[in-house]
Amino acid sequence: MKQVVHLIVIIFIALLTFASCGDHKSVRQVPHLGNTPYQQDSVLVTYATNPKRALTLLDSAQLLGHISDYRGQFIRAKIYSKSLVEQQQDSAILILTSLLTHDSVRNNATERENIYDLLITASRIKHDLEAYLHWATLKAELCRAAGQRAYTAR
């Protein structure tokens, strides 16, 4: 009787082993981000685990020309706006308000909305309700105007 139980257990373990070794397609592949860590995607992926390293990569990417000055400043402000350090939040607000005058932002409603989102986030983290309401109102007006244009275009 013991031999039969041992045999059943061995067969069961063997079946489990073969069943678990099957489909290799279930392995998720990480997309190739290029041949250099000095790109926007790499900086943002690194930010999730190591914000200081992300800032170093960002500086290098800007020096190498992989990220434009505007995009680099935007990413830096994005990193700073999510920080709990008050000086970095202040820096994010300064960078973002200066970016509002950039041609890429004035001529593109999506970029302006992205900047408003970061300004709203930084203001909320700083508990600056007046600034929060100001940026939220500007974003609401921007969205309302975009909706109005889409409605009249129909």
Q: Explain this structure to me?
A:
The protein is mostly helical. The protein has a domain at 84-154. It is built from 8 helices and no strands. The longest helix has 25 residues, at 129-153. It is elongated. The termini are far apart. The mean pLDDT is 80.
**Spatial separation of the terminal alpha carbons:** 80 Å
SS summary, helix count = 8
The structural class is: mainly alpha
Shape: elongated
Order of helices and strands: HHHHHHHH
Count every beta strand, where a strand is a DSSP E run of 2 or more residues.
Answer: 0
Mean pLDDT: 80
The quaternary state of the protein chains shown equals: single chain
Share of β-strand residues: under 5%
Work out the radius of gyration: 25 Å
Largest sheet: number of strands, sense, barrel closure:
none
Short synopsis of the structure:
It contains eight helices and no strands. The protein is mostly helical and 154 residues long. Helix 3 (51-64) runs antiparallel to helix 4.
SSE blueprint:
Elements: H1 2-20, H2 40-47, H3 51-64, H4 69-81, H5 86-99, H6 103-106, H7 109-126, H8 129-153
Helix pairs in contact: 2-3, 2-4, 3-4, 4-5, 4-7, 5-7, 7-8
Features:
single chain; 154 residues; mainly alpha; 8 helices; elongated
